[in-house]
Every structure is written in structure tokens, then in C-alpha cells.
Amino acid sequence: MTLIQHKDYKVRYQQQVDNAKEYLLPFIEQTLSITPELEILDIGCGEGGVLIPFLERGCKAVGIELDMLKSGYANELLSPYIEQGQVEIVNQNIYEEGALTRFSGRFDLIILKDVIEHIPDQERFIPYLRRFLKPGGHVFFGFPPWYMPHGGHQQVCRRKWMSMMPWIHLLPVPLYKGVLKLSGEYDPVIQELLEVKSTGISIERFERIVKRSDYSIEARTFYLINPIYRYKFGVNGRKQWGPIAAIPFFRNFVTTCMYYLIRA
Q1: Do residues 48 and 61 make contact, with C-beta atoms less than 8 angstroms apart?
Q2: What global pTM score does this model have?
Q3: Which residue of 48, 68, 132, 239 has the fewest CB atoms within a 10 Å radius of its CB?
Q4: Cβ atoms < 10 Å from Cβ of 35
Q5: 193 and 207, same structural domain?
Q6: How far apart are CA 139 and CA 100, in angstroms?
Q7: Both 35 and 22 in a single domain?
Q8: How would residue 3 be classed by pLDDT, with cut points 50, 70 and 90?
């Protein structure tokens, strides 16, 4: 099912802006005051829309994006802020020595919105982020738990019935790949979905990594309905029922999004 945001980068950008203003920034601001003194790093910034509410507050920021096309869009859409020196968009891998040399120990807040579930070796990556933080700096994570109904990102499938199929990504790899092929899915999409399957992260595994990396969890929110489902399915975000959120492992299957703010 191809949604308009899959085809139009300006639509994706505006959705990022709206979601960040309504959900992401207020969640962070419960713990961390958003003032012009803050410096922010958005890793996997895409078209750059998540940064807009922070830039409007006067913060300085860097958006780093590995995809050259998306970083080009971000440079276009954030051009007024770029021209006044408030934000920089960098087309680079965060693991490159050049990134660490330039940005080591610089940021008060790092943002990873719908990114961590795509990154291999999260046990290495999450503690690595500390190198870019000032002492006591914070990291925001927003991600879909792997076991939730569409944790495999199957909504990108071009067949509507396949894009709506819950929990199909939990099938063993050979069976999952076979079903995708039989549905007529394109090979690049199949490869993308298999990559997500290899990097998906659960609530419990995320929290274990955070604890082993000597971060503290400052805030977290469980969502029964992911706020971005407004754009995908026409339903508004809704927080998870407290008793369900308290049940380890089971909560992964019925929680479509997690927000975390952790502190170094």
C-alpha cells in the first residue's frame, strides 16, 4: 500500500514537523527544558522536520543523514535556518572518524526518531552515543517494539492486504521471504523488510542495553496507538493502558510505539 508520504518528501517533512510539535517536543520537555542554549543532534534526520520545533525555540542543531537524497531534501527544506547558521545537515555515517572528531562531546540532546530499529549491533551503538554528549546529556528514542502488529514495517508493501497483515514479520525468515515473494513484492522491498527483521528491538532488550551502558531512564511512554498512525491509518495517538504496560514481554505485542528519554 503506497501512501502519499512514501512518494512526496514535502508531505513526509510536514508530518515530521507536526508529530514533533504535538508529541515529541512535549514529551522531552517534561524532563528537559528546551532553551536556546541547547545543542541538538538528530541522527537519521531524514527530511529534517523533527528539528523544526526545536529550531523555532532558538536551539542550534546538526542533522546527520546517511541517505544522500534525504539529506538533500533536508538542506532544501531547512534552508532558512541553515542560512542563518542555526542548523547544519551532514551527509555522513555517524561511525566515521570525521563525525566523532567534529562532534565529540558537543550536544545536550540527541534525537533518534524511528531510527534505532534500523541500526545493526545496537549493543555497540547505544553506548557509542555517549561520545557525542555533554556530561549529563540526554538521548530521545522513539521506536516501534519489534513484536507489535506492524513491527516489521510491512506497511510499506504494495499489496494492501499484505501491508495490513499483523505479526506476519514474526514468521521464520525463509517462510516470511516466501510469503513476500508470493504476494508479488518487489525484491528491494523484500530486502528492506528482511533488514528490519534483523535489527528489530523489543522493549526489554532496549532497556537491558540502556542499563548495561550506564544510562538512566528519565521518562518513557507506551503507546497503544502510535501517534504517526494518524498519517498512515487515520487514527489518533493513544497511550497504552497502564496495567498492560506493566506486563513484561506481552506488552510488546500490543504497544505500537515507545518514547524514551535517557540520560548519560
Answers
A1: no
A2: 0.94
A3: 68
A4: 10
A5: no
A6: 17
A7: yes
A8: low
